[in-house]
Amino acid sequence: MKTKFLKKLSLALMLSFSAVIVGQSFTVNAAVKNQTQTSIIQSKTIEQSSITCNNQNISVTVVEDNANFKEVKVTNGNKISIVKYDKNANTAVLNGNTKVDFNKKNQIHTNSYVADSTTDLTKIYSYTALTYGGWWMVNAEDGYKCVKETTVNPDTNEANSVPLQAFRTSVNNLKGYEIAAAAAYGTATISIIAGIINTPETLGVSDIVAIVVAAGALLSEVPILYNVYTSKKDCNFYFNRIRTLKTNNL
Question: 152-161: per-residue pLDDT in tens?
């Protein structure tokens, strides 16, 4: 009787110990699974920060950053901009539909009898004032114009000399911001500047911030790169006010 009792007791203890081990194993596995799920959720948001640009508070979130792509989400009030940057193609897509090309374009025009001439670092915007006849050659995103200072724009009733000087100032400002950015953050910034030059003029602050951060810019670079964007808009504005046809004699 005593032997049988001891056998039953031993069997009961073994079953109880096995149940404890299984329970502990299940608890550990569940904890590992929960930790894995938490890790996956946390990895979706790599970095969050904020910056002030154009007197506006901007929230910047790096959603994903790997060897091939970088995705950035920028919030400015109710405006949300999401950019996915392709590191291999050196291009980005804003909000799923606007493509931005960071590959540098080259448009160089050399001229004789030059009185004054400047080309921005991307070689897209330039002006050349010749020493004779009041003739200028100007370049922008929309193309090339050879114009005379005395030509009058019938829409504004002003001579070309007015927008030509404004265009000249805008190109100089643009180049100044480009040089400052390259000097402060390295020549690799030129690629980002080329991307900004290639963006539509309808973009807002959050769009530009998302684009440049996705392309690899530091948050400290954002304000000066935004100035590049506004300067290129000025260049395009005055370029479009310059007339190529002579409509009046001054």
Answer: 888 888 999 9
